[in-house]
Amino acid sequence: MTTTTVIGADGLGKRYGRRQALADCTLDIPAGRVVGLVGPNGAGKSTLLQLASGLLSPTSGTIEVLGASPASTPAQMAKVGFVAQDTPTYAGLSIREHLHLGARLNPTWDAEFAARRIRQLDLDPGQRAGRLSGGQRAQLALTLAIAKRPELLLLDEPVASLDPLARREFMQVLMEFAAEQGASVVLSSHLVADLERVCDYLIVLARSRVRLVGDVDELLASHHRLTGAYREPATLPAGQEVIHSSHTERQSSLIVRSTAPIDNPSWTTQRLDLEDLVLAYMSNSATIGSIPVPEAQR
Questions:
Q1: Does residue 258 contact residue 237 with C-beta atoms inside 8 Å?
Q2: How far apart are CA 36 and CA 192, in angstroms?
């Protein structure tokens, strides 16, 4: 792992009894990026984020965050902000009490930013968190995470339950933070359209394994949809990896990964958008069997 890597994992795995939640995860995520983490339910997204935040310990392999073991020291913990899937807040505490708690627990707390964000959201500091709407709780959780001024912000499905307007406001604050602070962000979401607007780096997980990782622009440039007369995918030239294929009696449609130009005139070639790319890898992995747990680990 280099000094410009925000999260580095080597053979990282986590299991619960016989169930493998994450397997053989090897990553080297560059710092200063906004990373989209996508995959179906049960793919291992939450597990990876909880391992990176130090809430879980790995069963196998290693992980480093900002050059150290996750949550290994108070100083290291101060560098990482985490918003869990249910955007947790304390129902019985007021917004003001949440801000006071954040100031006491975080040495780099930005009280001015936190107070300004609450005013911008038009929230009553005296209102208890349990009486806020889902969108307001999500904004409060994001405010608490950002006000500690982390170098890395981890977010696990933070907008899943929000309406479109609340989702847009949440993502706007997130992007302002990343731009102003130069911070790294890893954002897990099922909503690929939201990720396409904000993310410049992509990780696709499926069946507990990493299926695709890299710079979004480079990944989109190296993937193509080929449409033409029916033929077997095995007939493609070397260097053109078939990620997904579908066929009728007369026509084939292939999603292919290739760094070289596709210059065969018998194919109609189209670029993919991010959702096409993600769905291709998720569909490809759907045929892969479950991951066995070695006998010695059972």
A1: no
A2: 8
**pLDDT score of 86:** 78
Report the C-alpha gap between 294 and 282 in whole angstroms: 25
Q: What angle do CA 49, 78, 10 make, to 5 degrees?
A: 40
**Count of C-beta atoms within a 10 Å radius of residue 106:** 19
SS3 129: helix
Identify the pLDDT of residue 167. 82
The mean predicted confidence, pLDDT, of the chain is: 89
Measure the CA–CA gap between 205 and 281, rounded to whole angstroms.
9
The DSSP-derived string for 144-189 is HHHHT--SEEEEESTTTTS-HHHHHHHHHHHHHHHHHH--EEEEE-
pLDDT over 90 at 285, yes or no: no
Nearest one of 68, 55, 52 to 154, comparing CA atoms: 52
State how far the alpha carbon of 233 is from the alpha carbons of 132, 224, 261, 272, in Å. Answer: 54, 14, 17, 19
Specify the DSSP class assigned to residue 276: H
pTM score above 0.85: yes
Q: Report the candidate in 138, 139, 153 with the shortest Cα–Cα distance to residue 86.
A: 138
Rounded CA separation 135/162 (Å): 6
Look up residue 4 and give its DSSP letter: T
Class of domain 32-57+67-216: alpha beta
The tokens describing 227, both together, are 């449409």
Domain range annotation of the chain: 32-57+67-216, 222-285
pLDDT value at residue 1: 44
DSSP letters spanning 195-230: HHHH-SEEEEEETTEEEEEEEHHHHHHTEEEEEEE-
